[in-house]
Amino acid sequence: MEKINLDYGGFVVSNNVIEGKPIRYTFREKSDIPKLNGWTIYSIEDNDDYVNNPDNFKIMGATSIIKIAPVMLEIFDAPYGTDICWLYEEGVHIGFYDLVNEKEISISEILSDK
């Protein structure tokens, strides 16, 4: 499984997500740190004060992300600049909302160059 982690690099993940809170936002930006893949994952409970404290985040590999949110590996190759909200219905993840283009978006649309 270590090879999976090397293939994907590190995800920046909110401690709230690690503790089991639902994911609310994910975005990808080019990282200055080569071992990071650019993905940041926020929980439904993360507010501005929370996200501004770096102690509230950990770097996780793909093998850990698979356990928390396997769909992250499906959208992994999304272009830098991707900024999506996770949509839920009765506590179940049902899709994504593109915050840049302000519309619901499919995985294939997330992966296409906009």
Can you walk through the features of this model?
The protein has 114 residues and is an alpha+beta fold. The protein has one domain (2-111). The chain contains six helices and seven strands. The chain has a seven-stranded mixed beta sheet with strand order 4-1-3-2-5-6-7. The N and C termini lie far apart (32 Å). The model has no long low-confidence stretch (mean pLDDT 93). Residues 12-84 form the Immunity protein Imm33 domain. It comes from Psychrobacillus psychrotolerans. It holds the Pfam family Imm33.
TL;DR of this structure?
With 114 residues, the chain is α+β, with helices and mostly antiparallel strands. It contains 6 helices and 7 strands.
Q: What proportion of the residues form beta strands (DSSP E)?
A: 35-45%
**How many domains in all?**
1
Estimate percent helicity.
Answer: 25-40%
How many strand segments? Answer: 7
The ordered string of helix (H) and strand (E) elements is HEHEEHEHHEEEH
Uncertain residue ranges: none
User: Gyration radius, to the nearest Å?
Assistant: 13 Å
Number of helices: 6
Distance between the termini: 32 Å
Biggest sheet features: 7 strands, mixed
- Assign the structural class, choosing from mainly alpha, mainly beta, alpha/beta, alpha+beta, or little secondary structure: alpha+beta
User: Looking at the structure, what is the overall shape?
Assistant: globular
Spatial strand arrangement across the major sheet: 4-1-3-2-5-6-7
Organism: Psychrobacillus psychrotolerans
Domain Immunity protein Imm33: 12-84
Protein name: Immunity protein Imm33 domain-containing protein
